[in-house]
Amino acid sequence: MKIKKLAILALFISFSVVGAMIKIPAMLIGSIALDSFPALVAAVVLGPMSGAIVSSIGHLVSAQLAGFPLGPFHILIAIEMALILLLFGYVYKKGKKLTSYILFFICNGFIAALPFIFILGTGFYVATMPSLVIGTLFNAIAAALVAPKIVAYKKLNAAEKGHV
């Protein structure tokens, strides 16, 4: 990995940590963090694997700041987040931008929490849905607004360097 890309990846991880400190109140588990937004942008700007790294580290830091309310299940959530961001980034890179955001919304907002029906019960799943869906929607909208601007800036910057 190039040093410049590694530095930018570290910047996105730090944005995810800051996003982890911005909370949407949720029943039972305290809150849902806004740590996915930087991961979505990283997946668009740096590629799917970078988005996966930012999302999983962002989630683990968010969980740590909250005192790991779900204990070791946060490892499962971090893996789920990484897989969701890999899927998002792959579909986005294929040019299916709207589809990628819809997939992210469905996967993160509804599917990722499904294993917890078997682990913690249906009540937990139902109780977390409103905050999880709102958090997912906010993250997706924010990324959809910001990511194209960063990509456009990146292209403009590259074009200017090519003409100098």
Automatic annotation (TrEMBL):
<feature type="transmembrane region" description="Helical">
    <location>
        <begin position="101"/>
        <end position="126"/>
    </location>
</feature>
<feature type="transmembrane region" description="Helical">
    <location>
        <begin position="73"/>
        <end position="92"/>
    </location>
</feature>
<dbReference type="InterPro" id="IPR024529">
    <property type="entry name" value="ECF_trnsprt_substrate-spec"/>
</dbReference>
<feature type="transmembrane region" description="Helical">
    <location>
        <begin position="132"/>
        <end position="152"/>
    </location>
</feature>
<feature type="transmembrane region" description="Helical">
    <location>
        <begin position="40"/>
        <end position="61"/>
    </location>
</feature>
<keyword id="KW-1133">Transmembrane helix</keyword>
<protein>
    <submittedName>
        <fullName>ECF transporter S component</fullName>
    </submittedName>
</protein>
<dbReference type="GO" id="GO:0022857">
    <property type="term" value="F:transmembrane transporter activity"/>
</dbReference>
<feature type="transmembrane region" description="Helical">
    <location>
        <begin position="6"/>
        <end position="28"/>
    </location>
</feature>
<keyword id="KW-0472">Membrane</keyword>
<keyword id="KW-0812">Transmembrane</keyword>
<dbReference type="Pfam" id="PF12822">
    <property type="entry name" value="ECF_trnsprt"/>
</dbReference>
